[in-house]
Amino acid sequence: MHTETEIDLIAARAAAAAGLFADTAPKDRAAALVAVADGIDAAADELIDIAIRETGLTRPRLQGEVRRTSNQLRLFAEAIVDGAYLDVRIDEADADYVIGPRPDVRRMLAPVGPVLNFAASNFPFAFSVAGGDSAAALAAGCSLIVKAHSGHPELSRRTADIVIAALASAGMPDNVFQLVEGQQRGVDLLQDDRIRAGSFTGSTHVGRLLADLAAARPRPIPFYGELGSVNPVYATSAAVEAEDDLLAGFVASVSGSAGQLCTKPGFLFVPEGADLGAVGGSAALVGEHRLLNPGIGRAFEQRRDTVLGAVGVTALAAGAVRVGDDDQRFATPTVVEVDVETLREHRDELLEESFGPLSVIVRYSDVAALPELHRELFPGNLTATLHSTDADADAVAPLVEALAETSGRVLFGGWPTGVSVTSAMQHGGPFPATTTDATSVGTAAIARFLRGVAYQSAPQQLLPMPLRDDNPWGVPQRRSSAGKSAGWGSLTGEH
Questions:
Q1: Among 176, 229, 358, 410, which lies 20 to 30 A Cα-Cα from 477?
Q2: Is the dihedral of CA 179, 180, 183, 184 positive or negative?
């Protein structure tokens, strides 16, 4: 139980640790991230046993998620170790600068300060206590408070113990990392003036409430919420004919982890006349899977009833929801079919995200009409996918343009479930996919927790280490020497 006084102390500790942590050299902070990764790997079996009990997710799924979690920490360590992420720029003083005399100006990226991260329910490792948001904030040099998800409290506490011990063993300042529990405590901290950025993975409703709170503070802060996404998939006639396993792959993507993935394909568009007979057979092969917790189970049950009860909907695989012990729900896949007209007329019932193993197949008549339809129905998503052939290139080019406008990641073939943690990954998109169109996966995620600071005509001894001429951290420095501006506009090379 955290009282108001304890909340104040937690925020004060984070603020006190922020400056000390920001001053740590990138190589030392990178070593600390590796220490956290090693600690998680060493305790993997223990952590996975707890996660199975609290979430109902399978051991193979959780084993893969632990590998992802520890290795993304190592990836962030690689991303920061040389200090290039600081984007150091040094413009030397230049009396003859063509725009007018230029002072000595030095710019770098600096940590924003204490970050509050709201952990996710559906990824108890990769988007939770030591997940991607935490890795990005720590890599940036920000002190971090994680609000644990109520769906896996024991796992959250044990993981936090490992993180705190690993950071201490690596010589990081005290209170760089703290864990709190309880919705109201998270809200109270979000409104504390010492918190300088927030991140969240969860529902559109809760994410929007938190984002509004962050924006309404006397001093507003950036809030990076990953909210809802239905991730539409489009298949051309040629692709349907060419890909024998298209429908089986679709069902597998919809049902993986009981459909409790933010990248699950919520809609598949196929041409009129496409044979959908394989859907029922593929769905019948999928065994029931426990949903994460009773609240999510009840919400999915209600959502499924709404979709199945909508006018014009045909069930290709009816699926089922069984209520077990402790009010837990166990589900099998539900896949329904509609036409474009039905989808438009009953958008209130059909377009909302179904967080669970449910998806909608939509029959369309004209591929040329899909770009307008997509912009109308799906203004913001994490992903959009196109299954087509080389012969379709000209016909689908306008659709690809529409997908890129409204989605963070555009896939050509394959399925959107499974997000590779890479330097080039984009896991974010226009609202309502996210509150702020950034990425929460991959090393670009660190940019959310950095801000630019420039120093003009500063004495060397008062400059941060990365901006000094002697460069004690040995970070890359991009310098603009005096006298270069006279040559602006002269292009070199043969043409």
A1: 176
A2: negative
Q: Which of 54, 65, 142, 262 is catalytic?
A: 262
pLDDT at 1 over 60: no
Q: Work out the mean pLDDT of the chain and round it to a whole number.
A: 96
Asked if residues 221 and 195 have their Cβ atoms less than 8 Å apart, the reply is yes
Answer whether residue 419 is part of any domain.
no
- Please check whether residues 213 and 286 belong to one and the same domain: no
Helix (DSSP H) and strand (DSSP E) numbers for the chain: 16, 19
**Residue 343 belongs to domain spanning:** 233-412
Does 352 map to a domain? yes
Separation CA 96–CA 102 (nearest Å): 8
The per-residue pLDDT for range 335-358, each reduced to its tens digit, is 999 999 999 999 999 999 999 999
3-state secondary structure of 216: helix
Is residue 124 a contact partner of residue 54, using CB atoms and an 8 Å limit?
A: yes
DSSP 247-315: HHHHHHHHHGGGG--TT---EEEEETT---HHHHHHHHTSPPEE-SSHHHHHHHHHHHHHHHHSTT-EE
Q: Dump pLDDT digits (tens) for 413-426.
A: 999 998 999 999 99
Residue 493, pLDDT score? 52
pLDDT tens-digit readout, 152-178: 999 999 999 999 999 999 999 999 999
pLDDT at 495: 39
Residues 297, 238, single domain; the answer is yes
Element containing residue 240 per DSSP (H, E): helix 237-242
The answer to whether 175 and 143 have CB atoms below 8 angstroms apart is yes
Of 226, 337, 349, 353, which is the active-site residue?
A: 226
Q: Is the pLDDT assigned to residue 491 strictly greater than 90?
A: no
What is the number of structural domains in the chain?
2
Residue 226 known to be catalytic: yes
Beta 334-339 vs 314-317: how paired, if at all? Answer: antiparallel
Q: Which two tokens stand for residue 6?
A: 């304890």
**Residue 108 phi/psi, 5° resolution?**
-150, 170
Categorise residue 180: left if φ over 0, alpha if ψ from -120 to 50, beta otherwise: beta
Residue found by looking up tokens 């209170």 in the block: 175
Q: Is this model's pTM higher than 0.90 or not?
A: yes
Look at residue 225 and tell me whether its pLDDT is greater than 70: yes
E-strand stretches of 34-104: 88-91
Q: What band does 3 get if pLDDT is binned at 50, 70 and 90?
A: low
CATH at 319? 3.40.309.10
